[in-house]
Specification:
alpha/beta, two-stranded antiparallel sheet, binds glutamine, 2 domains, 263 residues, globular, seven-stranded mixed sheet, Rossmann fold
Length: 263
Amino acid sequence: MTEEELMLTTILQCDRAQLYTQPLQLTDQQADRLERMRQRRRQNEPLQYILGQAYFFGLTFKVDSRVLIPRPETELLVEHVLEFVLRNHGTDLRILDIGTGSGNIAISLAKSLPSARIMAIDISAEALTLARQNARLNQVAQYIDFAHCDFFEFIEICRVVEKSFDIIVANPPYIAAALLATLPEDVRQEPLLALDGGEDGLKFYRVLIAQARRFLKDKGVLACEIGDGQKESINRLLADNGFGEFYFKNDYRDTPRFFLAQV
Ligand code: GLN
């Protein structure tokens, strides 16, 4: 659908075909709303924020400027995790999603793995509010425990969950600080917290890779999305931290975009 069609189907609560099979009649209120949407778009606000929703893994998520918009390539991360589960299926599957944002990864996994117990954490309280709403909207709230903390705090306070997860999944902020200003204008309207990976973009991987083993069961896996050009450095970080078995996967543009590292 074009952006205009997406705005119209959202306002009229109809599908694309109905836009063309019936004469287009907008009430004054609807016409105003359309104009406001166009206006926001002209100011480069991301379309998904304007529509208030985004699609991910066949599900609908509420989104606004409190969260990163779920990206299509991140669906591949969910698929890799599901593949891992198929190959290493155990009972009592426990998953930790770090930096859950809109909840897209945790909620998609909960939908596909109804017997899994998932913990989803985020440093942003307002992102968590939205993630909880999304879990209810997608009928998986009872399978996910949301907690407000960042991974650094988690390490301090969560001794109780040592060696208790089969899977740790994360799409951490991975843009190098100096590149933030060069991002397209609409991306720059997304939360900085969700994008900023520190000086070289690797800040979160250093901690995740160094600490993950403490929270993973034997044969558990750390599965992450990574940024452009980060494969070599992450390869080194994984090897230096004693991960013997790990592999990288590419995205739709054939660029290394994910790794899975097994304890
Ligand atoms: N987990 C969310 C996603 O993958 C948010 C990630 C983030 O905020 N960096 O889209």
